[in-house]
Specification:
Blueprint (H helix, E strand, L loop, with lengths): L1 H5 L3 E6 L2 E6 L1 H29 L5 H18 L7 H6 L10 H32 L14 H13 L21 H12 L5 H16 L1 H15 L5 H10 L11 E4 L10 H20 L7 E2 L4 E2 L11 E4 L6 E4 L5 E6 L2 E6 L1 E2 L2 E2 L2 H13 L19 H11 L3 H11 L4 E4 L11 H13 L12 E5 L5 E5 L33 E2 L6 H20 E8 L4 H6 L4 H14 L6 E6 L8 E5 L3 H12 L4 H20 L5 H14 L4 H8 L4 E5 L21 E3 L7 E8 L3 E9 L8 H16 L1
Parallel strand pairs: 8-12, 12-13, 17-19, 19-21
Antiparallel strand pairs: 1-2, 3-14, 3-20, 4-5, 6-7, 8-9, 9-15, 10-11, 13-14, 16-22, 17-18, 21-22
């Protein structure tokens, strides 16, 4: 094979006349270009590290401060070094090495640099104090108070110019630890509507006992951790909620995201893959260079934490016997593609540059045209990532720790991301919306259980008809943002030309013994049973959207959460989980909004009884929900605090009946809103066709529902509902959706 010869930079043979050396100039050229690319990347990272490290200052600011100080010292006729070199001269002969003029210049530079560092420290401290104030969240929508306007001016003044993605990290405040008394009070209020008087009295007694006795001791350790670490929740949340789970991550943890509903850039699978892969790599380049803007709230002034972007690419979850680990490599120049049971390693760089979209399409075409058969055990290999974690960990250490298996597994785990060229067709069909979206969602959520590498940070799935989607691993971040641009020609191919001498994809080699194949089969059996049990339902709700809801002077998110309570009440009230972000704080992730409130229950009962006070109760319920959302976003939530107190109790070896009961309560209704990020890319008013169905996830509890929704434009809300067929406690997702549909229509009247 030509590409195999090009991979060798030189060859030599020993002859009677000496050593005969054969150089491959093309290979040496590629080595040179690759090294040049690598050093450029290191320099850019170093430069960005410096820029981020001194933000909100800048290197140009250093020059201005030093020059200004030197000018002032000359004008005021003072020693620029402020006597620094005079004091040094008493201990060492400075004048022997530096002239008097040189001493003045060096001293001025040192003092000016110190002044510059002091200014940066003051600006950063003031900005952190400003960002610790969250009173702006209590302004009514569209009505900004005078105090908030003054605060916004100060935030802008101390925020510096042209921030990069990670510029604000050191200026973000730390997540505060709420008082135990406040958390137990809010907890009791949240469970009051779900308990009868006797149950509530008992739980109140447990809470009061915890608040007086064990709670303060645990709280002391938690405060010590909050002073020592950047975020007192995130590392424990990642470890105990995600990495220590021993069950399958497919369905239970991983989530999915869908393509556009109505826009189909091309029907060519290779072209869509080539364009999407190139866009993802360009996005990674911007991440590496920190060229993306931070995400803001409130008039693009309040920055959110960007830490979760760091592990979007080049990341994989590694199985372990007791706990998994996250492996992230700084640089990866390849991806791995799965197609019809075969794994291919595809290099993303050639001639020292990223491949063009048409060249990546060319590589995908080569894979699609490859008619070779899978090696023994290769086709279902990825089922190991879909089953239980312990069998996968044992198989990895036994069968994939050496030889070609280790090399091939390293290629998968160290790839930038994983791509599946799916051999099925999925798409939203307006003539059959229910079944088409259900099949589409289930394919993205679990596929065939062996054609996605569920341990990768994300899988890019491109279907046979050109539709695509994502399956993402949840440990490393929450709801990542991947951007895909459209750069296709009229004939459906990517722009550009094919490369005549581009080396082809490299087929990964495996040597999987029968014992390992047996483990793969067992994992696939577990995964298939889990996938078959998932009941999902997705359909766009287009009778109205946030436009009508806002006319009722109600928060769209609060409205939908109350709708879910009313729809689910046809079954029963239950503990409800709504995810809220805490990225106003450094390394913040999520907090829980307990949506089943006393006010929401009062409104639901009024709707069932057709009382005339329904509108007033709806507004009270919406205001209460908004208040809970603000509390969650500003570090006053309930569940992360109680979770961390429980972790401390386990480390200390003490039992808390209160904490044990709180953390054992099931979330039978788990909900999440898919946020609209990067709103500047598409104007849905001008281009209503650029809407997506959003994404979804599996049910959190075996006897519960998982509900995801996305509010698009003014007249569209998409719901994703999942449950398990095996649970006698849940009605079908189709029936729940019909209840939601009925409730939405009823409430607007």
């Amino acid at each position: 094979m030509a590409e195999a010869h090009q991979a060798v930079a030189f060859q030599f043979t020993v002859t009677p006349d000496g050593i005969d050396l054969h150089l491959c100039h093309e290979a040496l050229r590629q080595v040179y270009l690759s090294g040049l690319h690598s050093w450029k990347k290191r320099f850019i990272r170093f430069k960005n590290g410096v820029m981020t490290g001194v933000y909100p200052g800048s290197p140009s600011g250093l020059i201005v401060v030093v020059a200004g100080y030197m000018s002032y010292a000359k004008y005021a006729k003072i020693d620029p070094s402020l006597g620094l070199f005079t004091k040094l001269a008493t201990h060492m002969p400075v004048s022997k090495y530096i002239t008097e003029d040189g001493q003045r210049i060096a001293g001025g530079v040192l003092v000016g640099t110190g002044l510059w560092v002091t200014i940066i420290f003051i600006m950063r401290s003031v900005l952190k104090s400003l960002l610790s104030w969250h009173g702006w969240m209590y302004n009514r929508h569209g009505n900004v108070s005078i105090g908030t306007k003054i605060w916004l001016v100060l935030v802008k003044l101390f925020s510096g110019r042209k921030p990069m993605l990670y510029s604000f990290q050191s200026s973000l405040p730390r997540l505060p630890v709420p008082a135990v008394k406040d958390t137990t009070k809010r907890y009791l209020e949240s469970v009051h509507p779900l308990m009868d008087d006797a149950q509530y009295k008992r739980m109140e007694g447990l809470a009061k006992d915890f608040e007086k006795n064990l709670g303060p001791k645990l709280q002391w350790y938690l405060k010590l951790k909050s002073w020592w670490t950047s975020n007192y929740v995130s590392d424990w949340w990642e470890e105990y909620i995600y990495l220590r789970g021993r069950g399958p991550i497919m369905v239970n943890s991983n989530y999915y995201a869908m393509d556009f509903l109505y826009v189909f850039p091309t029907h060519l699978q290779a072209a869509r893959a080539g364009n999407a892969i190139h866009s993802a790599m360009m996005y990674r380049r911007k991440l590496d260079r920190a060229q993306l803007k931070p995400i803001y709230l409130l008039e693009n002034r309040v920055p959110l934490c960007s830490a979760q972007w760091e592990r979007m690419f080049n990341t994989s979850r590694i199985p372990g016997l007791d706990t998994d680990a996250i492996q992230h490599v700084n640089e990866s120049k390849h991806i791995v593609v799965y197609h019809k049971g075969r794994f291919f390693k595809v290099w993303m760089f050639y001639d020292g540059r990223l491949l063009y979209p048409r060249e990546i399409e060319q590589q995908m075409e080569r894979i699609l045209a490859d008619k070779s058969e899978p090696q023994p055990g290769e086709e279902h290999l990825a089922a190991l990532t879909a089953g239980d974690r312990i069998p996968w960990a044992k198989a990895r250490s036994t069968f994939f720790s050496r030889g070609k298996n280790k090399q091939s597994l390293d290629s998968v785990e160290k790839a930038a991301f994983f791509v599946t060229l799916d051999d099925t067709e999925q798409r939203y069909d307006p003539d059959n919306p229910v079944q088409s979206l259900d099949r589409y969602a289930k394919s993205l959520l679990h596929g065939k259980c062996y054609d996605r590498w569920f341990d990768k940070s994300f899988n890019l799935i491109v279907f046979k008809n050109g539709t695509m989607g994502l399956n993402a691993e949840h440990t490393w971040a929450d709801a990542p943002i991947c951007l895909y641009t459209l750069s296709l020609t009229n004939n459906g191919h990517c722009k550009g030309k094919i490369h005549p001498s581009l080396p082809g994809p490299q087929r990964l080699q495996w040597d999987i013994p029968e014992e390992c194949q047996s483990v793969i089969s067992s994992s696939l059996e577990v995964a298939n049973a889990l996938a078959d049990d998932v009941d999902s339902h997705i359909i766009p709700f287009s009778e109205f959207g946030k436009g009508l809801i806002k006319k009722c002077k109600t928060s769209p998110d609060a409205f939908i959460q109350i709708v879910l309570q009313l729809a689910h009440f046809r079954v029963t009230f239950c503990l409800t989980y709504e995810a809220s972000m805490t990225r106003l704080f450094r390394e913040g992730r999520t907090e829980t909004v307990r949506s089943c409130t006393i006010e929401a229950c009062a409104f639901v009962r009024a709707m069932e009884e057709e009382k005339q006070t329904r509108l007033r109760l709806l507004r009270l319920a919406a205001e209460k929900h908004q208040d809970l959302y603000r509390q969650a976003m500003t570090g006053k939530g309930i569940d992360r605090h109680l979770f961390c107190l429980y972790v401390v109790s386990r480390y200390l070896g003490v039992d808390s009946p209160f904490l044990k009961e709180v953390l054992s309560e099931p979330w039978r209704l788990s909900t999440s809103q898919t946020p609209l990020q990067q709103l500047d890319l598409f104007n849905l008013k001008k281009n209503p066709e650029y809407v997506t169905s959003g994404g979804g996830f599996g049910p959190v509890a075996d006897d519960g529902y998982g509900v995801s929704y996305i509010i698009l434009g003014e007249d569209l809300i998409n719901f994703h509902i999942s449950s398990k067929h095996s649970s006698p406690e849940t009605v079908s997702t189709t029936l729940l959706y019909l209840q939601i549909h009925t409730v939405c229509s009823t409430m607007t009247h």
